[in-house]
Amino acid sequence: MDKLCIVTTGGTIDKIYFDDKSDYQIGEPQIGHILDELGVAFRYSVIPIIRKDSLHITAQDRELIRATIAAQDAQHVLVTHGTDSMVETAKVLATIPGKTIVLTGALNPARFRGSDAEFNIGTAVGAVQSLPAGVYIAMNGRIWDPAKVRKNVEANRFEAI
Questions:
Q1: Which of 2, 8, 19, 80 has the fewest CB atoms found within 10 Å of its own CB?
Q2: Are 151 and 142 in contact, with CB atoms under 8 Å apart?
Q3: What pLDDT is stored for residue 49 in this prediction?
Q4: 67 three-state secondary structure
Q5: Is residue 9 annotated as a catalytic residue, yes or no?
């Protein structure tokens, strides 16, 4: 892997909560800070496209994500995305040939102690370097085929379908 291209779309991984309002906003992408703190031994660039909860990502947003990734020279692309509609976006990205694309996110914000964000990012980085061209989801310590996985909202995890 020469250089990892990271595309951010918002989601829980980048959420900031405001206790006094019981509300949240999507903050700046956290993945660059996480990778810097971990001292990774590869070059990367971060392209923030949108800052949305994935329940609010539209077909036009997905096309923007697809077009942006397709336009990059990088063969290895990591996408941070909200978990609720990650599978739908992955299916749209499957139309991009010749790239290894891994989507990941978090069930708890990266800024929270005990967040799964760092673990999921680490899993995704390993996957994007070792898998053949295609689109994958890295969540809950596993690599998933987007056509064979769903988010179980009640159990708050991804599972095979």
A1: 19
A2: no
A3: 95
A4: helix
A5: no
In this prediction the pTM is: 0.94
- What mean pLDDT is predicted for residues 1-6? 90
Per the annotation, where are the binding residues for substrate? 54, 83-84
Q: Which of 12, 89, 104, 123 is labelled catalytic?
A: 12
- The correct CATH number of 3-160 out of 3.40.50.1170, 3.40.50.2000, 1.10.287.130, 3.40.190.10 is 3.40.50.1170
7-11, 23-27, 60-64, 91-95 — which is least confidently predicted?
23-27
- On the question of pLDDT at 19 being above 80, the answer is no
Going from N- to C-terminal start, the domains of the chain cover 3-160
Residue 63: burial class (beta carbons within 10 Å; 0-12, 13-18, 19+): exposed
